[in-house]
From TrEMBL:
Family of this protein: Belongs to the peptidase A8 family.
GO biological process: proteolysis
Biased composition (Acidic residues): 167-185
Gene name of this polypeptide: lspA
Active site location: D122, D136
Gene Ontology CC entries for this record: plasma membrane
Protein name stated in the entry: Lipoprotein signal peptidase
Amino acid sequence: MTSKRASFAALTLMFGIIAVDQITKWAVVENLEEQRAYPVIGEFFRLYLVRNPGAAFSMGTSATIVFSIFQLVAFVACIVLALRTRYIAGALPIGLIGGGAAGNLVDRIFREPGGMHGHVVDFLSFGSFAIFNVADAAITVGVVCYLIYAFFIEPADHVREEREEREQQEEPGEEQEDASEEVSR
């Protein structure tokens, strides 16, 4: 796959995640009351609108600006990586992580109280697990995809490339042996 295709895939996924995240947050804010459970699958899965000034599990509520800066850096880094990626397997985690970081960054910038201090809209609730949103899910899945890529796919690609290089280096030597055998006959 060409790097242009992989870059296009990463950027398309990234901006798709941002769009889906913001549309779902808009729909939830417009249609649900805060702090009220809306069962979807009993108590296992429900919609529950909260505004989170902190990070996962509402930790660090007084460090909103730190999370905003971290998300901005992550988004910019993912844009740069998206433009440099050569493989679709590498494009997937870049798009997911970048889109998730940017989705929550939009909340930090534009939602109350605003100016990099905004509260993130969370609304997906599974059992007694944390309440999260599409951007959070994208980041989590992106990190898992990256770990799979880094520990399994990339090393396998590296081994395959080394083997192909060795085979290419061996081929000219074999041809020379065949030619010298033919000359001696």
